[in-house]
Amino acid sequence: MSGHSHWSGIKHRKGAADQKRGLVFSKLLAAITAAARAEQNPDFNPRLRTAVQKAKEANVPSENIERAVKRAKESGGALEELTLEAYGPGGTALLIEAITDNKNRTIPEIKKILNAEGAKWAEPGSVRWAFSEASADKRGNWTAKFLQKLNKEDAEKLNVLVGALEDNDDVQKVYTNAA
After folding, report:
1. Considering the entire predicted model, what is its pTM?
2. Interhelix angle for 46-57 vs 62-75, to 10°?
3. Is the pLDDT higher at 41 or at 1?
4. Is 148 inside any structural domain?
5. Any bridge partners for residue 132, and if so which?
6. pLDDT tens digit string along 48-78?
């Protein structure tokens, strides 16, 4: 029977799993590189320590983690951290954290995703008021001050939008104020 090879099925499943794992690895390693720019020793850099811990929990090889820290030391400031703002379906506020080596590529990619999903780009500072930053290092852990209730249709649209944004290689995390 043509097309019913056991190996073929394994190959396709493994390929899909490897692709998902590769995307997670690249995001975690970019976070490590960005955190290691200030201090390469995790004992003195809590942000780096947290990023390394998350990478180890995701089974990222130690050599890759060491290479990411070394890359931060060698490249200096090649990676840039961005916090982008947008309004999603039903007027929900979105904060998009990204780490990129080329913001002139990343920003238009994110704008394209937002336009395709019916969301609107917001100017810096116009969405951030709806969130409070809980972390001491002023990076991440955003929590919504005011929750936005959504109907079922808008909630589905928001889930699709967040999924599309998180599929982008440069996007690390998307925060919303949806209830």
Report:
1. 0.71
2. 150
3. 41
4. yes
5. 143
6. 899 999 999 999 999 999 988 888 877 665 7
Structural domain that includes position 172: 80-176
| Residues 6 or more apart whose Cβ sits within 8 Å of residue 142 | 95, 131, 132, 133, 134, 175
Residue 98: which of 56, 147, 139 has the closest Cα?
139
CB 85 within 8 A of CB 128: yes
Alpha helices in the chain (DSSP H): 6-35, 46-57, 62-75, 103-116, 152-167
Crossing angle (nearest 10°) for helices 6-35 and 46-57: 170
Per DSSP bridges, beta strands 93-100 and 120-122 are unpaired
The helix/strand/coil state of 82 is strand
Q: Is residue 1 part of a domain?
A: no
Q: Give the CATH number for residue 104.
A: 3.30.70.980
Q: For tokens 């913001």, what's the residue?
A: 103
Q: Which residues are registered as beta bridge partners of 173?
A: 97
120 in helix, strand or coil? strand
Same domain, 102 and 60: no
Token representation of residue 7: 């190996």
